[in-house]
From TrEMBL:
Residue ranges of every copy of the Beta-ketoacyl-[acyl-carrier-protein] synthase III N-terminal domain listed in the record: 118-196
Biological source species: Mycolicibacterium frederiksbergense
Protein name: 3-oxoacyl-[acyl-carrier-protein] synthase-3
Swiss-Prot/TrEMBL keywords: Acyltransferase, Transferase
Gene3D superfamilies in the cross-refs: 3.40.47.10
EC number annotated for this UniProt entry: 2.3.1.180
A Pfam family of this chain: ACP_syn_III
Coiled-coil intervals: none
Residue ranges of every copy of the Beta-ketoacyl-[acyl-carrier-protein] synthase III C-terminal domain listed in the record: 248-338
GO molecular function: beta-ketoacyl-acyl-carrier-protein synthase III activity
Length: 349
């Protein structure tokens, strides 16, 4: 793990956490109201998902997700990391990210604590890009990438929102990735693209209208319309394959030759379209949509952890991770030559 003469950076391991018991699709079906978007392909409910507990914080989730890394690599590796990169869908406090609290909970004293917001569902790829850059330029030897998706049980389960079609798709979960200066499991290439012209097209709405921070009646939901959904579908269908092809071109591999594709999982339509665009069979595209729903930024690391645990990826395989964010304002892809996981794996927690 200490061979870094060429500043090679590796994704060594990922560990994850899913809160509580599975919640079935019938939970939301009994609340369903008269939503004109109910039949839209974006909102076809998964069989199950998980919800964060009422008093469970994003810091709690990350601490529980990190348990697998501590078990396999030792507490000193986690506590001694030089860089902590975090992304939380719903920060525990609105004015600052969770990085400081997560570092303290994990016993860390890192040189860098960076909270990402713009990465959205592609935040794990953005975190890999940032970690690789920092470590390769001498800013440390070890980085943690911590992501927490906690909006399902906090936003989408509000009494007024759970009646909407959009509420039945999200699920909660968290993950922590371990990145080091090493050639054990090298990050081969990363492509990140910002589409600023689409920034702000994902909006929080209230009835009656107000700014998110203003007091008043009405619960927050995502401002979906048929027109917006059509645009997001078109962008996601285009952007994820584009960043995948860019990475594959630079590493000299055809997308259809990739051993495993790991993406975010907004819905079944995107999953199918991305596989088709890359000419990959379903057996080489891992997802947990039916068990976990849309995990937002936690989707890639949770899915990858599941693939490792289930033996769907082996040492030497080329893994392609890709996602797009929000209404299409960001997309990223990363290729990793997986080096295998240490013995004692306990899988998704």
């Amino acid at each position: 793990m200490n061979n870094h003469e060429n500043n090679t950076v590796s994704l060594i391991d990922v560990s994850t956490y899913l809160p509580g018991e599975k919640i079935g699709a019938d939970y939301y079906a009994r609340f369903a109201g008269n939503d004109e978007l109910a039949e839209n392909v974006m909102f076809r409910a998964p069989r199950f998902r998980h919800h964060v507990a009422p008093e469970e914080t994003a810091i709690d989730m990350v601490e529980r997700a990190a348990a697998g890394l501590i078990e396999r690599h030792g507490s000193d590796v986690v506590a001694g990391a030089d860089v902590l990169i975090t992304h939380t869908q719903m920060p525990d406090m609105p004015f600052y990210g969770g990085g400081g609290g997560m570092a303290h909970r994990l016993g860390m004293k890192p040189n860098w604590v960076i909270d990402l917001h713009n990465g959205g569902c592609a935040a794990f790829v953005l975190g890999l890009n940032l970690a690789r850059t920092l470590l390769a330029t001498g800013q440390g030897r070890t980085a943690l990438i911590a992501v927490a998706q906690n909006a399902a049980g906090q936003v989408f389960d509000q009494p007024g929102i759970r009646r909407k079609a959009q509420a039945s798709v999200p699920g909660d979960g968290a993950a922590v990735g371990l990145v080091t200066l090493s050639d054990q499991s090298p990050i081969l290439d990363i492509e990140c693209r910002t589409y600023g012209e689409y920034a702000g097209e994902m909006t929080a709405t209230f009835d009656p209208p107000r700014k998110w921070w203003q007091p008043g009646p009405g619960e927050a939901s995502i401002g979906f319309t048929e027109s917006k959904i059509t645009k997001v579908l078109a962008r996601g269908n285009r952007q994820v394959p584009e960043v995948c092809y860019a990475v594959c071109d630079r590493i000299g591999v055809q997308p259809k030759e990739i051993d495993l594709l790991v993406t975010n999982q907004p819905n079944r339509v995107f999953l199918r379209n991305w596989r088709d665009a890359l000419e990959l069979p379903e057996s080489r595209h891992v997802d947990t949509f039916e068990e976990c729903g849309n995990l937002f930024a936690a989707g890639i690391p949770v899915n990858f952890d599941r693939a490792v645990t289930d033996g769907r990826v082996k040492a030497g395989d080329t893994v392609l991770m890709a996602a797009f964010a929000h209404a299409g304002d960001f997309a990223g892809a990363a290729a990793v030559r997986w080096g295998g996981r240490p013995a004692g794996d306990q899988g998704v927690r």
